[in-house]
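Box S1 | Example of a co-folding query
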Amino acid sequence: MLIKSKILRSAHAFSTREGGVSTLEHTKSLNLAFGRGDSDEVVLKNLEIFAEAVGIDPHGIISVPQIHSDIIYKVGRADAGEGYYKRANIREGDGYITDEKGITLGVKAADCVPILFEAEKGGELIAVGAVHAGWRGTVAGIAAKCVRMLCEEYNVAPSDIRAVIGPCIHKCCYEVGEDLKMAVEQRLGKEMSDLFVVPSADVENKYFCDLVGLNRHLLLEAGILPENLDVVDLCSCCHPELFFSHRFSNGKRGTMLNVISLGL
Ligand SMILES: [Zn+2]
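Box S1 (continued) | Returned holo structure for zinc ion
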């Protein structure tokens, strides 16, 4: 049901598709997003099951609709529930930071790259962050932006921050076109594009994009120390029995949730 990283001390998890109550072929069984075919009741039941396994309060989670932006909100316990239990007049965005307990940051994904952050100073956890990085968020630099915001808001250094890249589509399965290659080149430079968007051996004008490599590079460049950076080495598209994958399912799929919290 959930995957954790050894380097994080806070309550956190990357969900898999196992262990929930969704019964539709494409959402079974732990779909954690509305609007994918399950009733709202089923989604909220899944949220309760997942939250209990992680050891967090489902009502404490914030996870608003994601728009492939680089928008990151600084949130507190007053924002808890936004996106699941509060659904009217809510924000849209792709990341959060907080230094408060009583709220859990949640980013959804089904191939896109979820990244969880925690900042520790003097042996004490003082802040957490979470971002959703599809290719648009990746080239917009949302991963590095989260590091900058944690440093500015909570007076920590990049070396105080640990980051984990969760399950997502890897370069083995992420075939892309010329447009994505050009977007990476324009936003991040030719060197990055040459390194992380490599031509397909079989198909002309097709490439394989390494979103994990790009985000890893951007996080290291932002000052995260290599020993404080972990990657869950599982491709969502290679393991359709374990993960929801947008690419593998041609878009007909459930959604996973990835969470981190300083505590109840
Ligand atoms: Zn793969």
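The mean pLDDT is 98. Helices lie at 40-54, 135-139, 142-154, 178-188, 190-196, 211-221.
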